[in-house]
FAD-binding PCMH-type domain-containing protein
Amino acid sequence: MATLNLDTLTAAFADIETITDPAQVAKLSQDYHTFSPVLVPKLAGKVGDIVVRPANEAEVIKVAATCAKLRIPVTVRGAGTGNYGQCVPMHGGVILDMTKMHEILWVKPAVARVEAGVKLAALDKKAREIGWEMRMAPSTYRTATIGGFIAGGSGGIGSIQYGLLGDRGNLLGLRVVTLEDEPRIIELRGDDVQKVNHAWGINGIITRLELPLAPAYPWAEVIVTFDDFMTAAKFGYALGIADGMMKKLISVFASPIPQYFHALHEYIPQGKHPAFLMVAEPSLEFLPGLVQQYGGEITYQKPAQDAGKGTHLAEFTWNHTTLHARIVDSSITYLQSIFPPDASLQLVEHLYHHFGDEVMMHLEFFRVRGAVIAGALQLVRYTTEERLNEIIRYHEAQGVMIANPHTYIIEDGGRKVIDPEQLKFKEMVDPYGLMNPGKSKVLEFHNNS
């Protein structure tokens, strides 16, 4: 990597918005990796040299050409809502902030085309005007950008119906700008989108995306409480496999997690284990019978017509659960787990009892290859890195897949290996290894050999 001359760069980007104020640059070099006490010291002091905010694809091409020519590292950033340090620059350079590219190019029945910096909530609102909505979104949907979600996300609210982002059909097309001496625009469609999907900003600069939409349902929000955690979990699974009932969210929390949800205390009696649901209103009349079957009690219900008012249950689920817990107790961290398919949830039950309150069980139900799966974002009472690794190893020994949120190295996280097709595409679009360097073992080896 070349030594960066800030004056040279600011001159090269004279017509593009740039930020050089050290405090602002430092702020825009961060994400929510602070959820992990392991990552905080490892990423301390890692900041970019300059933030560049392109307003259109032509400006992206100009930035790419300049950085390729000068061999300057580029770290692409959306809203910085990720949790793994993936938009923290390991080698300084340019932070490419895509939030000014926020045009919704068009929305048609079942499909939308947008710029990378469009917020998920903005697209959802626009799509609903013609009776459609996004298939899935993270709990950060109000602030997260679509480009960031595709580059670093994997699923979320809606995944119980439509699976994960990486599933065939959940991303229709995208455009990337290459980091070559003469940057190109490459458009990928169909299965070719997987060359960039969930590639952590290492495989070209995403500028535009085409996404499938879902029919927009009127979603009611419901809290159901149970005396026993495993009964709550089995209720969640039963609702998940009730294919005739349309649902968008099934989150189940072991007590004492609800103590961290201050805005919802009146609906969750002490010691109870709640399920947070988003169910389509036409399916609601089937819910009481299922709740009764599992001995639960509906304590809260918000009709779809009030969706824009008051508390949003979705913002207490997925990664937001950890956020709420850490507001109360900053020593809490978390895991990300996928349990093998099992209708009896025996492994969930074993781990729930094995760790007790040290690892508080938080389940999210979603579909993987057609099967309803219990995923978990367990809250962990952190003591030491050694103990955290013991907890991870015990889960893995039982057959639980851990997407480790305590590493910024791609291969050590959820993926374990980088897809060979992504590597091949990487060599073509980023021949100098300038995109988000330092995040992959295999790429570091290639760059240094």
